[in-house]
Amino acid sequence: MSEEKKNSTQVETSKKEEEKIKPQPIKKSESEQFAHSAKASEYALTLSQKLDQSRINIDRLQIKINDQVVFGMKNGDLDRKQTNISDQQAELIKQALNDPASFEGSMKITQGSKVLLHIKDGQVLIDSARLVEKSAKVELDVPDPDTKQMYEKYSENVTNKGLAKTKQTAVNAFEDGVSFEDISKMLKAEDPEYKKMLSSSNELKANKSLKQIVNSAIAQAKINSQAKSQSQSKQIQEEKTAAQTLTA
């Protein structure tokens, strides 16, 4: 072997050795890219608190990205079994709220069976919670809620009379995820007791009384939710105790 060829072979061998030693970039797996983030959970929790401050029931609240549940609330607290939100998914939520027109995919916020917000492929389909800034919203011709249909639904099985019926109707609506504002609209349009208050006093006094009734109904709905949760916990504990007794 000539000296020149020998040197060329040594250079090639040296390069191959360097390539073996050189660290390769680590590719993140899909699961790593969407790993749970405490910071992202905090953002979603802040969003739910904003809804709570707007007097929207946040019990059984869920946030879904492309039909996948990434955040959940239960009995007014973070549901850790449902919550698994990454920084990337939190950014998608922010994008959907701040610039819905550029958002691709689906983002939905629900409370029980009620849809509070639904943004899909650049369009705001539902925003009853008023989370999307008006300046950023892609306006669609979405009619106001049918107050007559709502009132019939939430007062249907109420046996109370007078203002007690008004309050229970509001409780039922709030427990189904209806906002303070929409409950008030429903009662102003359909509730006979509110109409009586209007005829016997001025609108200002009637609205003030109605506001107190709706606030009281919301407080009662929250108490009902806590009591239900405690009852379920007690039942689960009793079942566990009974099962342990049988196996002992």
List keywords for this structure.
single chain; 248 residues; alpha+beta; 2 domains; six-stranded antiparallel β-sheet; 56% helix; 13% strand; flat
3D structure, described in words:
This protein is α+β, with helices and mostly antiparallel strands. The protein has 2 domains: 35-136, no CATH class; 147-247, no CATH class. The chain contains 9 helices and 6 strands, in the order H-H-H-E-E-E-H-E-E-E-H-H-H-H-H. The protein has helices at 3-21, 30-33, 38-53, 87-98, 147-155, 162-175, 180-190, 192-200, 203-247; strands spanning 61-65, 68-74, 77-78, 106-111, 114-120, 123-127. Strands 3-2-1-4-5-6 form a 6-stranded antiparallel β-sheet, covered by helices on one side. Strand 5 and strand 6 form a beta hairpin.
What is this entry, summarized?
56% of the residues lie in helices and 13% in strands. With 248 residues, it is of the alpha+beta class.
Q: Major sheet: size, sense and barrel closure?
A: 6 strands, antiparallel
Q: Could you give the distance between the termini?
A: 85 Å
Number of domains: 2
% residues in beta strands: 5-15%
Helix proportion: 55-70%
Give the number of DSSP strands.
6
